[in-house]
Amino acid sequence: MSEAPEIFDSLPYYDDDLEKFPILKQKVEQELARESKPPQTHHPRVPPTVTLFANNPMLQAELARIESHQTLPPLDTIRYQLPAPTSAPGTDEEWQAALKNAHAQLEHQRIRHTNLALMQTYGPNAWRIHNYLLEETAKQSEKALEDLKQLTVDVNRERKNTQTRIGTQLTSLETRWTELISSVLQIELANVALDAEIDRLNKKEAELADV
């Protein structure tokens, strides 16, 4: 059978020696300063770091740009222009390239017009649904956060009540232990005194017997 994991818990609501005796707090801080730095590796129970956009190099590059506070590169507006051949009257190849660019610009504008028509027809409802889902997700996240905060408060309150209750018992037991130790010491001192008195009486008896 596997042994249950050991739980080491302090008693911060009962052990207040550091507040009562500043010299102890100073010694603790000195010991902590001499401690080695914590390991760089995470605890085994801590999940590994999530790599964002692992399957999308373009989004990874954009995220790296934002993290490095680099400005957004300017938009390429050349593809939205219709440049004519630079030479006059222009070669057939240059006019063919300009014609292909004009066809591409026309197709691009046609697709934009189609997308705008679809957006005007279906966009508002899709946006409302998207906002509704975001609001519900935000509400669920806020509720989970509040529940976690309340659970943390309940756990700390229970710890404080338990430590305060047990602390009273510990104080009573410590006082009783001190009284018992004091009684034992008094009995030992009395025994020593009795032994000395017995030795004195024995010596007195031996002296009287010799006379």
Descriptive tags:
single chain; 211 residues; mainly alpha; 4 helices; 70% helix; rod-shaped; spliceosome; Breast carcinoma amplified sequence 2; nucleus; mRNA splicing
Binned, the helix content reads: 55-70%
Structural class: mainly alpha
Mean pLDDT: 87
Terminal residue distance: 79 Å
- How big is the Rg? 43 Å
Envelope shape: rod-shaped
Main sheet makeup:
none
Number of DSSP strands? 0
β-sheet strand percentage: under 5%
What is the H/E order?
HHHH
As residue ranges, the low-confidence spans are none
**Number of distinct helices:** 4
GO biological process, one term: RNA splicing
Protein name: Breast carcinoma amplified sequence 2
Family: Belongs to the SPF27 family.
Coiled coil: 131-207
Please, could you describe this protein's structure?
There is one protein chain. The protein has 211 residues and is an all-alpha fold. It is 70% helix and 0% strand. It has four helices and no strands. The protein is rod-shaped. The model has no long low-confidence stretch (mean pLDDT 87). InterPro entries: SPF27 (IPR008409). Keywords: Coiled coil, mRNA processing, mRNA splicing, Nucleus, Spliceosome. Its main location: nucleus.
